[in-house]
Structure formats: C-alpha cells, structure tokens
C-alpha cells in the first residue's frame, strides 16, 4: 500500500539527511525521512548506560570554522566543552615517552625535524592549488590523482621517523593507509579542513571541543522538530523508481512511499544496495563501486580517576610503536563529572587485522600500551571499557568517511553531487568544506535541499551555495609559525649545502697547501 504523496523523501536520518529535511520543512514542504536503522544520527551515535552516563562512539568533535555545526548546536541549546589540553602531550617512541606542547611532536634529531617541517609544508603548499569545490580541476589533478600518498611519502620524506608519523597522520585523518588512497584526494581532504594544523590540532583545531550530552542529540532534536510521522525508522530502502511526475520509494518490508523529489543521504558505497529504475547513469553506477569506507574501531577505557592528569599529561598521546594497536589517544573527561576515560582509535590496517579479536582482548592490549605511554601501572586496572566497531556497521559500512583511491576524483568526482533526474545527493562525502565531518554533513544536506528549492522556483540558482557566517564565540586563530618553520631547507637541500661547504673547504685547504708549496 502506497503512502500519501510528499514533496520530498529523504533517505537516511543521519545528520546530512536530517539537515536537508529540516531546511525543506522550514520552507513549508511536506517531507518524509526514511532511515534503515532503529535510531537517528547515522555516524553520530551517543551510547548511554549507568556506568558512563553517555559517550560518543561515533562523530564527536567540533572546532573553529565548523560554523554550520556550531550554528545547529546553538539553535537547539546544545553546549560544548573543551577537550583537555592543559597538561603536556606525549609522544611514545622506542620504549620511551617524551613530553611536548605543540601541534606536532618532536621528531628527535635535527635532520628528522627538517624532514617533518618540509613534508607537512609541502602538503599544505600542494593543497593550496586545489579548488575545494572541484579538486579535479587542480593544475596537477591527473598527475596527483594517479599517485598514492605512499608514493608521495617515498619521494619527499627522508627519515623513517617522519614516514611513520606521516603514515599515522593519514591513518588518523582518513582511517586508511597511504598505499591505498589518492594523493589528490588526500591533499584536497586536508585543504578543505583548513590545512594540516587545523585538521590535526586539538586546541584551535578540529578536535577542540565536544558536546555536553553527546553529538547525537542534535539529530534527535531535528527529528523531534520534524515529528514522529515524518521520520520513520527501520525502513531500509531497496528500490527507487522514477516515473514521469513522481518518484516511488520501496522499503524491504514492501511499503511504498511517493514524492516529487528524493534526496539520498546514504554513504556512496551503500547506494549499491538500492535498485534504481531506471538504472543509474553509467558513471554514477561505476563510481559507487569504487569507493570503500574507512576502517576504525573507536575505544574508551574508563578509570576511577584521570591518573594521566595527576602525572602532568593531558591525555593526548601519539604512539609510534609497530606493536601497538592504537596510534593516538585523547582525554575523555566530562565537565559534569562521571568516570574519566581515555579515548583511542584502532585504525585502517590495524582495525582490519584486529577486528576479529574480542573486545576484552583489545582492551587488554590497549591498557598495556597506556601503561607504557603514561608510565604507570594504574593504566592496567580499568573499571569499564566501551568500543564501537564501525567496520561491522552495515548501514555505514565503516567510518569516518569514504576513501578515494587513485584515479577516482578525476574520473568520477564530478558525479558525486550531480542529480539523477529527480534524485539529489547529500552525505558528508559530497561536501566542499569539512567533508568527512559533521559540519560537512550539514553543508551537504542543506545544499541538496536548496537544489530542490531552486527547482521549485523558491530560490535562485546562485542561492544554492551559501557561506555560513563565522561563529560569534568559537572563532579560529591563525597558527603561529616561526620564520624557520616557514623557510627551513629540505633535508636534500641541507645535505647538498653541507656537501658544497665541505667541497669548498677541501678546495680552500688544497689551495693553501698548493700556494705554500709553490713558495
């Protein structure tokens, strides 16, 4: 039996789909949201129990320049609090822990320090050439898209320490390995988040804040505003049939829904689970077969007290150890109290290799590493453990976002946002700023909604893309860098300089000896 005809059906009640539905609803359109899960929120998921109160096992962080997400939080009265970074950060390498205070850790010797500065400076410089809305139009798009990030690191990084750190940087930010992702995509991904410092930093960066009460409540607030009759759960969609004047959407239970337009806010690779009638255009059909989701298991280890703070550590740690199953940690202590925890990720290849371990086995290995990093046996005695294995989540397929392999962007990138007749596409993967994040999800949802408003004659075409005003309170600060950090030579340049100086010194000594002999 068919449902009544709506103006728009939105498939997916994650933050992107709900943002689209909210905007359309506010413009007076009749909207229906269909969600495969038994909850709203998508890749934001706040778990609750008596031990922990609440914890974000999905998307959690917000920071300066994420103005859409901050605006949405303000609208619903959702407050933020700072991720702790008062005490020292720590890098653990070769069995020892070293404290530091900057965004990037010390690399050890002078040559490694030069190497770190050069590699990340080049990432930002190359990224500055890439248009955020159309990376396939970059001057070197085809060349860079045909390279992996691993090939870039092999070319530019001289030291093993920097190669390992850069690999961890890739793992953390895109939950993939350098050997499997396109250089063009990775450079674009970092650029559209504001550069290496903005994407990586806690203070003044993408991990600066979290939400009091958890991030999923934003989706819950939107769903409540829309009303229960406009957000239907446990409705996995299996068929989208476009007819002359309408679209019919059918779920796996046999229910059919009708609308003038459809917005798909389903992750790109999961769109292949849906039958389209008529079939998708050639390039879109090929596109959704070529992008896997990232791989991550998010973990939280709880203790009776934040022992790391007692020892002068803020909880942020970078771990350079091949035997460790985690690479990064952050403090997870709620401002309203409750049990303190350390959050960490099992990322990329490690997540794929270790996803079949039991949660208890992962917890044990994580605690053993915490004991080494923070130099205390207190880490060996947690009182509780939570984790979420996003690799097993069938309605996301992974997290945080899709991984784009070599050749993808230049051949298929223009298809990601291209409507297919009456079907428009949202999802954080289609955003042009903070793609892969909650802020990008909102941008994509609202953009897709405005595309439909334009087709209905309610707004002009030049009003589809809107620049969000900067948040009045949470504002970005420029990252302060020294003249040396901006202009230091590459390792190759420095070694060449040393070689020339050595050669000139040898020539000078030779000339002195020759002149003395001639006399």
Radius of gyration: 25 Å
The shape is globular
Number of helices: 17
Task: Give me the CATH fold name of the domain at 2-42 and 215-291 and 400-457.
Answer: FAD/NAD(P)-binding domain
What is the CATH class designation of the domain at 2-42 and 215-291 and 400-457? Alpha Beta
State the end-to-end distance: 111 Å
Share of residues in helices: 25-40%
Low-confidence stretches: none
Corresponding CATH superfamily of the domain at 2-42 and 215-291 and 400-457: FAD/NAD(P)-binding domain
Oligomer: single chain
Overall structural class, as computed from helix and strand content, comes to: alpha/beta
Second-tier CATH architecture of the domain at 2-42 and 215-291 and 400-457? 3-Layer(bba) Sandwich
Strand content: 15-25%
Arithmetic mean of pLDDT: 94
The counted number of beta strands is 19
The biggest sheet, with number of strands, parallel, antiparallel or mixed sense and barrel status, is: 8 strands, mixed
Question: What would you say this structure looks like, in words?
Answer:
The chain is an alpha/beta fold and 519 residues long. Helix content is 35%, strand content 19%. It is globular and about 80 Å long. It starts with a strand and ends with a helix. Among the domains are: 176 residues, FAD/NAD(P)-binding domain, CATH 3.50.50; 30 residues. The mean pLDDT is 94. Strands 1, 2, 9, 10, 11, 12, 13 and 19 form an eight-stranded mixed β-sheet that branches. A seven-stranded mixed β-sheet has the order 7-6-15-16-17-14-18, with helices on both faces. A hairpin with a 4-residue loop joins β11 and β12. The longest helix has 28 residues. The protein contains 17 helices and 19 strands.
